[in-house]
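S.,

Sequence below, as promised.
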Amino acid sequence: MPDLPESLSLYLVTDAPDRCRLGLLDTVVAAVEGGVSLVQYRTVHAHKGAAYAEAQALRALLAVRRVPLLVNDHIDLALAVDADGAHIGRRDLPPQAARRLLGPGRWLGLSTNNLRQLEATDFSLLDYIGIGPIFPTGTKRDVSPVVGVEKLACLVARSPCPVVAIGGITLGVAASVRAAGVAGLAVASAICGAVNPAAAARALRRVG
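The prediction came back faster than expected:
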């Protein structure tokens, strides 16, 4: 598995398949060709069987390209497809339980939105944190308040873990987000919804 900081640089969060112009798998392949360094699978399926089949297909195509796969929320699914780790939110399993299930050999990330959450975090359980949404986003419902670039920089400075910024990040704002000191940019629609996902990833990769 590649080093974590390198892998976090351009972090693709999969969008719903119907929002991927090329379909999910072809979009991910194109994005990796353009420079995506890590993929987080965010399932929209109500049934675990469908999610398992999709995640397993992603795992296979990413493994031969040596690109890590994380699974959002579902630790059981991450283990079932032998993913490289998982990313959890504040409403998912607590980090202690997630780490116990994943073991020490897989990466674990946690969503964070504000200083109070940051100060309450046990960073010994985590490999990185995701901070966001930085800007308004339509990718997820029930999102936390917008963080903004200035507050992001303050949170990055206080975090002992690498930080990935997420939420509403497009090519037009990518440079300002990079300047906040993050280890990586996490994007969904900016790549999944692009006519040419490889070109979109390549342009984002060049920033910073």
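The chain has one domain: 4-206.

Coffee later?
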